[in-house]
Write a structure and sequence with these properties.
This protein has 1 helix and 24 strands. By secondary structure, it is mainly beta. It has one domain: Neuraminidase. The protein has a 4-stranded antiparallel sheet with strand order 3-2-1-24, with no helix packed on it. The protein has a 4-stranded antiparallel sheet with strand order 4-5-6-7, with no helix packed on it. The N terminus is likely disordered.
Length: about 290
Amino acid sequence: MRISMIFTIILLTMAISFFMIPEARGEAQGLVAFSSNRDGADHIYVMEWDGSNQVRLTTQGENRHASFSPDGEKIVFHSDRGGNFQIFVMDADGSNKVKLTTEGRNWYPVFSPDGEKIAFTSDRNGSGQIFIMNADGSSQVQLTSEGTNWYPAFSPDGSKIAMQSDREGYYQIYIMNVDGSDQVRIPTPVTNCWPAFSPDGSRIAFSSEQDEISQVYIINVDGSNQVQLTTEGNSSYPTFSPDGSKIAFQSDRGGNYQIFLMDIDGSNQVKLTTEGINRWPAFSPVE
């Protein structure tokens, strides 16, 4: 009888831990938003960071490149509903979609860490350039002008923006101040794309074609200590988990592009999606 009571207490303790501790529920890293064409067109989906509970949020047009607001309440993305690709924002459950841009074509939006700004790429003045605007779509300002510039990414403190630019003949990673000043290249010899800051701001993950196919690398912000993290297929578009211990990325190893997750050192690479083509992962914040 006494042994039975002890066993019951242990089971109750485990159950309470499961519902009270975020890590036990699989929420330690938040949600992951991504784009998938499993239903025909590209649409925004969200899933748990372990790949479970995949839910579709959009229904019209082609919808790509989601980014969560820092409070997790909003998702910004680009969509061609109604014509050219434009920037939209919606609630994190897919409701209340609002268009923020109208001029030219606009892609790859990302929230600033304080949620007050959105950086994005626009070709409204010719070639693709980095712009910044208020989160409600007002005060849209161009930050770059040399070459073609894509995929802005804010530093964790919001003072810097990383991007890829071909101003020297091939794509390289640059970092600039949030007002567009002091644009500096991270010194590497080959094509580099899709930068993402680590949560502590000390490193940048990116994809590089050093061996004629894209692989994910990580490097210090000063360009030192470059480390290759992937080796299979074309692997690109890395994004850090909120605590910096994981990186989600897209890879076409085995066929179509799918979303994968790995540890920060490149170990334990796990496929999270299987249906259709899945790209552009982005973590939500963790409360």
